[in-house]
Amino acid sequence: MPVKLEHIRTPNDADWIDIEKIHKDTASQQGLTSTPMEVSSRLAAGDWIVAARFNDRVIGLILAHQQDNQVWIDQAAVRTITQRRGVMHQTLFLLMKWAREQSLTLICQNVPVQLQTALSRRGFQQQGEQWICNPAD
């Protein structure tokens, strides 16, 4: 399932519907645990959504915020109906490509144990409680 990466700072009405669906699908599995209202607050504070789009719908997302040359990412989630189709793999791949082009380091923290192997395979290295990927390396 090919996806397009999009950085969303101001979701449209359809995006909010998709965000709500992703939250309902994944909150109990440590996916998108923030409610749409909490996501809205994060966006207002300068964070953004790294979205995976397919057929004009957001089917996966990662929340992000930037500090200097570091992008902190968390709450990666994919709609249940599109899981196991490589959506998050593509999203991370495209995000890493973007980070490399921008000379940015990606940092995750509080990564669930079941996702740590996947991050390691994609070039993230564990440093204490954080998982760090410097795509320029």
From TrEMBL:
Residues 6-137 form the N-acetyltransferase domain. It comes from the Bacteria. It comes from Parathalassolituus penaei. SUPFAM superfamilies: Acyl-CoA N-acyltransferases (Nat). InterPro entries: Acyl_CoA_acyltransferase, GNAT_dom, PanZ_GNAT. This is Acetyl-CoA sensor PanZ family protein. GO terms for molecular function: acyltransferase activity, transferring groups other than amino-acyl groups.
